[in-house]
Automatic annotation (TrEMBL):
PANTHER family recorded: CYCLIN-P4-1 (PTHR15615:SF91), PTHR15615
UniProt source species: Triticum turgidum subsp. durum
Protein name: Cyclin
Cross-referenced Pfam families: Cyclin
A Gene Ontology biological process term: cell division
Keyword field: Cell cycle, Cell division
GO function term, MF aspect, one: protein kinase binding
InterPro entries per record: Cyclin_PHO80-like (IPR013922)
Amino acid sequence: MFVCCECRCYNNAYFARVGGISLMEMNYLEVDFLFGIAFDLNVTPAVFASYCAVLQTEMAYLEHPPPSIDAVSPTSLLQHCLPDQEVDTAAAATAATKSGCHRHQQQLTV
């Protein structure tokens, strides 16, 4: 398998060396992975678009992280996680955790 990134191509030998395993083990893992996904390497445009949207959201978050926890109130953080709901701090913290609002789970538990 070759992976190209900005005109640089990396093969299994490179990834094996970086990962600290033998080339034989890397090749085995590749074949095992391919059988595991039944060689289904195609992605629908809709799935591709949804993954792109998630990655773009995460990149925007990394480029513009929220202010530090000391600079904002817990209520405003919870409103960011749950914008369409009334915010009862204790109930909202539980809801944010259950809903998977990963950006603020750590901040809420601090």
